[in-house]
Amino acid sequence: MRTGVSQSDSSVRCRRLPLLVPTSDYGLSSTRRRSKIEKSMETDLKSKQAEKENGEAAAERVLARTVPEGSIHGFDSLHRLLEASLEPEIFQEVSRMLLGLNCGKPLELILLPQVAGSLSTKYDFDLQGFCFRADEESLRQPRVVRVGLIQNSITLPTTAPFNEQKKAIIHKVKSMIDAAGASGVNIICLQEAWMMPFAFCTREKRWCEFSEPIDGECTQFLQDLARKYSMVIVNPILERDAKHGEVLWNTAVIIGNNGNIIGIHRKNHIPRVGDFNESTYYMEGNTGHPVFETCYGKIAVNICYGRHHPLNWLAFGLNGAEIVFNPSATVGELSEPMWPIEARNAAIANSYFVGSINRVGTEAFPNPFTSGDGKPQHSDFGHFYGSSYFSSPDASCTPSLSRYRDGLLVSDMDLNLCRQLKDKWGFRMTARYELYADLLSRYLKPDFIPQVIVDPYLHKQ
């Protein structure tokens, strides 16, 4: 730490120290006096160094207690860390590079009503709002829809009775849906299996008790809120299909703004990576790539692991989706570098909006389990890092929600932007679907031969 004394000044002070020697030492020779002084100085320096190290260790312990798990040095997100660390003009340029521009301008903030802010303060959830605009058209009016995403942690420990866990999560989520309703949200999507811990990697069958039919407890709870706020709600649940032998599915129930069930979509792709080997609980979906036409626009649901499959995103686009939701549950060590990229790429390539939702928190389970990656047994999957966000077809995106707090993200989006970007880039007109279809049809046959042209000199060498 600087004290205002230069290095040369400090050395001068050291040379003057003998003048401060106690009078009892004056009978010693100058050599012995110097030796004693040097030892005294060395002891003093070691003492100060120990005090410094102890102080730093204590500071680190305090910091560890005060910095929430999952935060970035105490900040909710990378965006907020950069905002606090950079000069405004530098931060503005960095934001442009990271988040893009919407119709040539930075995203505008939405001023949300005070009641929503009060709820976010009372129940401690992150609340943010942004606006995606489209260019003004001569023959079409703007088609602005207000859309929301909710990310949440579990409320009670996984050892609590299942019915109590479920009720506590429902109570928590209601406060965020109320904030969305007060904010005029038209369509909202919850995270994957929002009504339970994400226990699908423990391989314990007792967690199947959280399953429910399409019109079960959670759907009925959300139907009431859909009617109250005239809101379309995407409700991802663990579905029990009583009509087909009690089979379980990972399902999104689409609830209309009148409280009716419009339809369902079942998760197409089941992961087999690390802890996430979910085929113990449910099978690959059998509902294809449905798009649901609501009074607010055409929406689809690409559940979790499906975001890693470009053709899955493509299929929803070919069926006419304007907004695709990606309710997920994923941890930092496994997927965080991919999280800001895949959905944004899908929005660009398919000319629709994407809402990406991830749960938050670390969920510990009573019985340790192992996975297919060779790691020792453990009791949790790691930290679910939240960071839910919206992506636009023009490559712009919102800052993400917190990495560790519950959150509600609200966005106005002009759906005219979807067609405007199709016209601008012409991806639909320049794609060669006939070539892709031919390759895929040949690939599915047992006698498929890859189209590889070999250098004739390769094997001669």
TrEMBL record:
GO terms for biological process: beta-alanine biosynthetic process via 3-ureidopropionate. Residues 26-57 are annotated as: Disordered. It catalyses: 3-(carbamoylamino)propanoate + H2O + 2 H(+) = beta-alanine + NH4(+) + CO2; 3-(carbamoylamino)-2-methylpropanoate + H2O + 2 H(+) = (R)-3-amino-2-methylpropanoate + NH4(+) + CO2. Residues 37-57 have a biased composition (Basic and acidic residues). It comes from the Eukaryota. It holds the Pfam family CN_hydrolase. The keyword Hydrolase applies. Keywords: Hydrolase. This is Beta-ureidopropionase.
